[in-house]
């Protein structure tokens, strides 16, 4: 992503004056899917793709915003009734409103922004956009809001202005990202810890199936319900169990006859996945990337066979990775489409990508998209 490009568009649209330039990254999640709403751990990292925005206060009570990628310009006020119609502008408006609710004296500004986070590939372009503006407005208007609250501003924007009831992981990773580190976030206590991720001799690559399944939200709600049903059954014997994170496989087996086979499978996946995150953290402490890869394959198997949120295309890409000797591969994100995330030895990279593209196209009639990612820094000012 090019600062000079964003600046040239800003100058063109706003009379030649320059402001400050800010950036926030998209994210990957190495392991830990469907653990967040079960009180478990997630393990994200910021990536070298994200959003860049130039911003300059304009002395009015109006925001003048230009989306470089969409070639679209919107103006809006800062009161609740001023919400813009354009969906992309609602993210910026929502961040302004959430900052104002937290006592920040946000005034009008001019802004132009662009991104290189691929849309719909599960790398959280919206969180990158929210984090960029939350970080920028906090600095420009002397907000004194801490980084955790900035992540919550982005989350609240999704909830209150964009109609998405997301967790905190995406915004958290975007704000807190650190080059060469992944972050283990405890979704219950919100405590976090950095772990080294410097896979010398390996590359991290996403292979995008370019599949979107319409049933994702209803299927997601159903799985969440399964987890809650299992917890309620376990709680009768173990009153201290609030989430599946508190349960063991032995506790789950005690109630096997009281819940459906489907609910049992869903809970089994989650309990095992929470443990896998901890195992991966231990492996990274000693630089054991082979164990990391093995756990990624175990996650894919669990998401495909127990949680049943994979799809034919993702299973195909996972099998292809296995056949090519890729160290680790799994579906990334909630499932029902999107990408696999792959940990690939340098010397296998070219042959794996060539085979994945060729065989996927032969079977499904289109090519998957490929994105190399490097773990990078979080929200910051560039200029």
What's the total helix number? Answer: 11
Q: Overall mean pLDDT score?
A: 95
Question: How many domains would you count in the coordinates?
Answer: 2
Class per helix and strand makeup: alpha+beta
Question: What's the SSE blueprint?
Answer:
Layout: H1 3-13, E1 20-29, E2 41-42, E3 44-57, E4 62-67, E5 72-77, H2 87-101, E6 109-115, H3 125-140, H4 147-161, H5 169-176, E7 181-186, E8 192-196, E9 202-212, H6 216-237, H7 249-254, H8 261-285, H9 289-306, H10 312-323, E10 328-331, E11 337-345, H11 346-364, E12 369-373, E13 380-381
Parallel strand pairs: 4-6
Antiparallel strand pairs: 1-3, 1-13, 2-7, 3-6, 4-5, 7-8, 9-11, 9-12, 10-11
Descriptive account of the structure:
InterPro entries: Galactokinase, Galactokinase_CS, GalKase_N, GHMP_kinase_C_dom, GHMP_kinase_C_sf, GHMP_kinase_N_dom, GHMP_knse_ATP-bd_CS, Mevalonate/galactokinase. Residues 9-57 form the Galactokinase N-terminal domain. GO terms for molecular function: ATP binding; galactokinase activity; metal ion binding. Residues 91-178 form the GHMP kinase N-terminal domain. Belongs to the GHMP kinase family. GalK subfamily. The chain has 383 residues and is α+β, with helices and mostly antiparallel strands. It has 2 domains: 3-198 and 377-381, Ribosomal Protein S5, domain 2 (2-Layer Sandwich); 202-371, 2-Layer Sandwich (Alpha-Beta Plaits), CATH 3.30.70. It is built from 11 helices and 13 strands. It has a 6-stranded mixed sheet with strand order 5-4-6-3-1-13, with helices on both faces. The chain has a 4-stranded antiparallel sheet with strand order 10-11-9-12. It has a 3-stranded antiparallel sheet with strand order 2-7-8, sandwiched between helices. Helix 8 packs antiparallel against helix 9. It is globular, with a radius of gyration of 22 Å. The model has no long low-confidence stretch (mean pLDDT 95).
């Amino acid at each position: 992503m090019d600062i000079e490009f964003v600046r040239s568009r800003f100058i063109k649209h706003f009379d030649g004056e320059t402001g400050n330039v800010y950036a926030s990254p998209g994210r990957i999640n190495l392991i830990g899917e469907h653990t967040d709403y079960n009180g478990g751990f997630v393990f994200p990292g910021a990536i070298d793709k994200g959003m860049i925005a130039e911003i300059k206060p304009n002395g009015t009570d109006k925001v003048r915003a230009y989306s470089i990628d969409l070639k679209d310009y919107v103006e809006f006020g800062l009161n609740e009734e001023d919400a813009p119609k354009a969906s992309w502008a609602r993210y910026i408006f929502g961040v302004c409103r959430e900052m104002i609710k937290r006592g920040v004296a946000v005034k009008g500004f001019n802004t132009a922004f662009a991104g290189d986070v691929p849309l719909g590939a599960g790398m959280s372009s919206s969180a990158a956009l929210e984090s960029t503006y939350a970080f920028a407005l906090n600095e420009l208007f002397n907000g004194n809001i801490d980084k955790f609250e900035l992540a919550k501003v982005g989350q609240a924007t999704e909830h209150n202005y964009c109609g998405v009831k997301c967790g905190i992981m995406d915004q958290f990773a975007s704000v807190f990202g650190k080059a060469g580190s992944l972050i283990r976030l405890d979704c219950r206590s919100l405590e976090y810890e950095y772990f080294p991720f410097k896979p010398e001799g390996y590359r991290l690559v996403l292979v995008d199936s370019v599949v979107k399944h319409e049933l994702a939200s209803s299927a997601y709600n159903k799985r969440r319900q399964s987890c809650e049903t299992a917890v309620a059954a376990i709680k009768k014997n173990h009153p201290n169990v609030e989430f599946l994170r508190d349960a063991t496989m032995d506790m789950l087996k005690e109630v096997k006859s009281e819940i459906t086979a489907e609910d049992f499978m869903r809970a089994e996946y989650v309990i095992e996945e929470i443990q896998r995150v901890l195992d991966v953290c231990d492996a990274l402490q000693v630089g054991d990337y082979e164990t990391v890869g093995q756990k990624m394959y175990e996650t894919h198997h669990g998401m495909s066979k127990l949680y049943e949120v994979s799809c034919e295309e993702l299973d195909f890409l996972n099998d292809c990775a296995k056949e090519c000797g890729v160290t680790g591969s799994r579906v990334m994100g909630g499932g029902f489409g999107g990408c696999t995330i792959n940990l690939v030895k340098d010397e296998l990279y070219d042959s794996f990508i060539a085979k994945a593209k060729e065989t996927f196209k032969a079977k499904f009639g289109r090519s998957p998209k490929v994105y190399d990612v490097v773990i990078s820094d979080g929200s910051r000012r560039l200029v």
